[in-house]
Amino acid sequence: MKTKNPTEPLCGIVPPMITPLLGRDQLDIAGFERVLERVLGGGVHGVFILGTTGEAPSLSYRLRREVIDRACQIVRGRVPVIVGITDTSVVEAINLARHAAAAGAQALVTAAPFYFPEGQPELVEWAQQLVPDLPLPVYFYNMPQMTKVTFEPETIRQLTQLQGVAGLKDSSGDLKYYKQLVEIAKARPDWRVFVGPELLLVDTLRLCGHGGVNGGAQIEPGLLVGLYDATRRGDNATVERLQARLVQLGEVYKVGRHASTVIKGVKCALNLMGICSGELAEPLRAFNEPERRIVAERLTALGLL
Hints:
Layout: E1 12-13, E2 21-23, E3 26-27, H1 29-41, E4 47-49, H2 61-75, E5 81-84, H3 90-103, E6 107-111, H4 120-130, E7 138-142, H5 144-147, H6 153-159, E8 165-170, H7 175-185, E9 192-195, H8 201-206, E10 211-212, H9 221-233, H10 236-249, H11 261-272, H12 289-301
Helix pairs in contact: 1-2, 2-3, 9-10, 11-12
């Protein structure tokens, strides 16, 4: 696999990696290596650890540092490693960022601080406090479902003035909002705008977005990479075929009833496929047997089990 030049702005498929666990504070090291090698073998353009899918807010700081170290050791510079540093504490976010830089990561990601919902002027102030002390470029992460705060377009416009910001990832699912982000980013040719919900990958690429941070790339990396490539080259027949399969893959995430269903679905699928542990970070629990059977049926229908 060709090593990505870390000085080039990142584009493409960057899966948000799960954190496979063997216990409350124990990483499934072998499983983590298998899932990372799976996505690398599928041609992804980078990996994102310690995000929502990685259950970062539920992990101890010790375990977060271990995940960073292991990921950088396993990836060995083949693609950029991007590290989530979202925290309620600016001090802890900076500490984790420094650890990531020392371990060999290439970039960082942060959502808005959670618990105290920040107003838009406060978001700007927070970014102005945080970014100058970060040792690596950072992407902002719009995840209003979890943080209860949205980076409004005018706020993003102000943040384009900050050096050290590489762009943003949007998981709002709002295409109109995403289009505004792409327009704002034109003021910074080095900025990149990624999408979270994978069913919107094609739509956002056609709006001149730059790629996807898509959890399904861990289950079937070649599907997301192939869809990205086909969209970029304008191969509409291939896009239509792969998009239909992506819709089918998305049924794996609809087994549960709560906000955790995507993480549970991805972990359950990878566990059923023999890749890693399916345990979730406490206080969440993995699917029970009835849900596991449904996931197994849907993977079998896809030819993945």
